């Protein structure tokens, strides 16, 4: 017997809290943080500033930003015990499994990890934002049999990460491009991983448990893994002249096209517009135009065929080719997502914690209502 209740599949349309962090209008393709359009953040700000702004829920003043930047730089080093653990991980381990394990272990090493006061959550957030970059870079190097590169304190967050994965200092253009990519992924409302982090935190669990939960949610291909699948698609297409036929065949067979469509946006994802322009710039400057040309053709084909249904490229569509041009292997695209989103996760947990209520949804029971226990020998 079914209870007389409606079910919001996937929690779609369900509102359980208020937030000042991020606003999305999917019909018009609008995304703002603290009321400021994502395009302005990408053009004028930095990952460090947006991270702090979300933690504060307002634009920081110059002194606050300078102090926050200094805090991040001072906390980039990870404990030696964690470095050793990363070296011992199987080289063929799933990078997100490895990241989830590393963050959980980092919590074991943090003497403040069980403290859930606002002050402690803020301090742990700073360490997590700083150290997640070092963890991921160390994992990338170790998995490829390379020496782990220690972080530097004279580079930006984005520039230091590229230095740690490649062993050489990036150009200012490369560092800025990656900085913009991070900005575009910092926060996106009540997505699956953010919701998961809040759900864990709502039990008054610790920040490391909340972030480990969020990483687990992000690991799924329906959330964080789409940009990796876009690169797989590009490899399958092979050349720009084959792209239209490839996509038309997929559409004819009603197959999903990775990096296209979004649960929220029924217009162009504004983040994809920003990344498209920078992807074009990189392709032109670096002479790596094949992938970009394939993506251009796919986008045109998709928009012509199904754009009137509100299905357009999303942020994952162009991010993969940008990461590839920066020397990042596709297996690490989802950890890079976490590298950016950690700021949004921490900010959302801190915001919700100020008026915390244990998340306890209900379900509609559809099972038997008049059953009785049968002895094992009487069961068929």
UniProtKB/TrEMBL annotation:
Q: Which reaction is recorded as catalysed by this protein? A: oxaloacetate + acetyl-CoA + H2O = citrate + CoA + H(+)
Q: Name one GO molecular function term.
A: citrate synthase activity
Q: Which residues form the active site?
A: 262, 316
Which InterPro entries does the record cross-reference, listed alphabetically? 2-MeCitrate/Citrate_synth_II (IPR011278), Citrate_synth-like_lrg_a-sub (IPR016142), Citrate_synth-like_sm_a-sub (IPR016143), Citrate_synthase (IPR002020), Citrate_synthase_AS (IPR019810), Citrate_synthase_bac-typ (IPR024176), Citrate_synthase_sf (IPR036969)
What is the name of the protein in this document?
Answer: Citrate synthase
Q: Where are the transmembrane segments?
A: none
A Pfam family found in this protein is Citrate_synt
Report the domain of life of the source organism: Bacteria
* Pathway(s) this gene product operates in, as recorded in its UniProt entry: Carbohydrate metabolism; tricarboxylic acid cycle
Stored NCBIfam families: cit_synth_II (TIGR01800)
Q: Some GO term, biological process aspect, for this entry: which one?
A: tricarboxylic acid cycle
Q: Which CDD domains match?
A: citrate_synt_like_1 (cd06118)
The protein's organism comes out as: Deinococcus radiophilus
The similarity annotation says: Belongs to the citrate synthase family.
* Keywords for this protein: Transferase, Tricarboxylic acid cycle
An annotated GO cellular component? cytosol
């Amino acid at each position: 017997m079914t209870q007389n209740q409606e079910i919001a599949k996937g929690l779609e349309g369900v509102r359980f809290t208020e937030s000042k962090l991020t606003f999305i209008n999917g019909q018009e393709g609008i995304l703002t943080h603290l009321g400021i359009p994502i395009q302005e953040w990408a053009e004028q700000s930095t990952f460090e500033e947006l991270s702090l702004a979300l933690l504060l829920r307002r634009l920081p003043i110059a002194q606050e930003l300078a102090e926050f930047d200094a805090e991040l730089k001072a906390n980039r080093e990870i404990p030696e015990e964690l470095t050793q653990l990363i070296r011992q991980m199987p080289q063929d381990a799933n990078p997100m499994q490895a990241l989830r394990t590393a963050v959980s272990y980092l919590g074991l090493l943090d003497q403040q990890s069980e403290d859930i006061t606002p002050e402690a959550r803020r301090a742990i957030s700073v360490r997590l934002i700083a150290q997640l970059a070092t963890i991921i870079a160390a994992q990338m190097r170790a998995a490829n049999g390379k020496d782990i590169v220690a972080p530097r304190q004279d580079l930006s967050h984005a520039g230091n990460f590229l230095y740690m994965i490649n062993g050489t200092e990036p150009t200012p253009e490369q560092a800025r491009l990656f900085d913009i990519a991070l900005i575009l992924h910092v926060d996106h409302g009540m997505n699956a991983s953010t919701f998961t982090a809040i759900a864990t935190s709502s039990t008054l669990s610790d920040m490391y448990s909340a972030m480990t939960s969020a990483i687990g949610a992000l690991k799924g291909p329906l959330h964080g893994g789409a940009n990796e699948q876009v690169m797989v698609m590009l490899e399958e297409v092979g050349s720009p002249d084959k792209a239209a036929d490839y996509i038309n065949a997929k559409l004819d067979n009603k197959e999903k096209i990775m990096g296209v469509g979004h649960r929220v946006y029924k217009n162009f994802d504004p983040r994809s517009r920003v990344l498209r322009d920078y992807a074009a710039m990189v392709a032109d400057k670096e002479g790596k135009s094949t992938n970009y040309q394939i993506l251009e053709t796919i986008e045109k084909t998709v928009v012509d065929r199904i754009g009137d249904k509100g299905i357009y490229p999303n942020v994952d569509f162009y991010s993969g080719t940008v990461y590839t041009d920066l020397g990042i292997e596709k297996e690490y695209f989802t950890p890079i997502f976490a590298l950016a989103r950690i700021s949004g996760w921490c900010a959302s947990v801190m915001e919700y914690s100020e008026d915390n209520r244990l998340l306890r949804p209900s379900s509609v029971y559809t099972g038997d209502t008049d059953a009785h226990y049968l002895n094992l020998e009487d069961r068929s």
